[in-house]
Design brief:
- The chain is α/β, with parallel strands linked by helices.
- The chain contains 10 helices and 13 strands.
- Helix 1 crosses helix 8 and helix 6 packs across helix 7.
- The longest helix has 16 residues.
- It is globular.
- The N and C termini lie far apart (45 Å).
């Protein structure tokens, strides 16, 4: 991972989950009864890089795959999307992860992760990092999943320490309880093991937040990091933990953004007919990166990111559904 083919500066480098999404081509059908599937590039950190690339940004991913045909597919897909794959390397002993979902619009999209005995993207090691490139990137993006197991946890924290808050460093709170020994969401929806899973994750989230300038997540994810659920209290707690900008996604209530300098924006959601809600948050993330790099004000940035997320929610796929800047602008102009 330490030998880039050129030294050009990236607009965005993301680090974290990568894999193959196997999504039904039928909606409203239980997985056991689905007959046809489509294969797509997947993984939250990867989708954010794709989304930002579609916005015209130069992006790269730090991750790992299996040494298998799905790994080859991932490299081909990244290149097709214009995402640099130099830091995506194979792990011979583990298969490339696959993720299945069920699609029950408008708001039920169960995910089934196949990431055992261990996902290759959790075998990123600190000594393999290109720290110069990480420091040089205009935006560096990490996710909560990268903190759930070693050696990825140490590598993620080492990357953040090397970054030293240069440029913009985003922590996508990305709460996946099953990766922390839990079930369900957070708070009352966490199931019998929810509280313990959150307790396992919180100190690692706190360690990462100390190095981040931006935190983004929904209320469940923010609760894992902060212990509170009220969106405004979540945002303030994240600011108190060291970030400059807290972005709290509130589902049907829209999105709240609060900056350390006192600026705030609360933007309602962009209504669409939802086909598949998976990937909307990653599209939001890529558009958020575009807005941050463009120097936009909070309200414009949140409206744009909301619209980018809504466009993906109205489509079946994730990575291949990410909109271009012109598509988002046209979508906004119609509303």
């Amino acid at each position: 991972m330490t030998e880039p083919t050129d030294t050009g500066r990236f607009d965005l480098i993301t680090m974290g989950r990568i894999g193959v999404d196997i999504y039904p081509l039928q909606t409203g059908v239980p997985l056991a009864e689905v007959e046809t599937f489509g294969k797509f590039l997947g993984g939250s950190a990867t989708n954010v890089a794709v989304a930002a690339s579609r916005q015209g940004r130069r992006t790269a991913v730090i991750s790992r795959t299996g040494d298998d045909p799905f790994g080859t597919y991932i490299h081909n897909a990244l290149r097709d999307f214009g995402v640099d794959d130099r830091w995506v390397t194979p792990v011979a002993q583990y298969p490339t992860p696959v993720t299945f979902c069920e699609i029950f619009p408008p708001d039920d999209f169960p995910l089934y992760f196949y990431r055992r005995p261990k996902a290759p993207d959790l075998v990123i090691r600190p000594e393999e990092l290109d720290q110069d490139a990480i420091r040089a990137a205009r935006v560096f993006w990490i996710t909560g999943t990268g903190l759930c197991e070693e050696p990825s946890r140490s590598a993620t924290l080492a990357a953040l320490e090397a970054r030293a808050k240069s440029g913009t460093t985003v922590f996508d709170l990305d709460w996946r309880p099953m990766f922390w020994g839990g079930q369900g969401g957070a708070s009352g929806d966490g199931g019998e093991t929810g509280a313990q899973a959150m307790a396992n994750a919180r100190p690692h989230y706190e360690a990462a937040l100390a190095h981040a300038t931006v935190a983004v997540g929904n209320v469940d994810e923010a609760e894992v990091a902060t212990g509170v659920r009220d969106p405004k209290a979540c945002a303030q707690a994240l600011l108190d933990m060291g970030v400059e900008l807290a972005v709290i996604k509130q589902g049907p209530k829209g999105v709240l953004a609060v900056h350390r300098d006192g600026r705030t924006a609360e933007v309602p959601p962009t209504p669409v007919e939802v086909v598949n809600g998976l990937g909307a948050g990653d599209s939001f993330g890529g558009a958020l990166v575009h807005g941050l790099l463009s120097g936009w004000g909070l309200e414009r940035m949140m409206r744009y990111a909301n619209a980018a997320g809504a466009i993906v929610a109205s489509r079946l796929a994730c990575s291949s559904a990410m909109p271009t800047a012109s598509e988002v602008e046209a979508f906004l102009a119609e509303r």
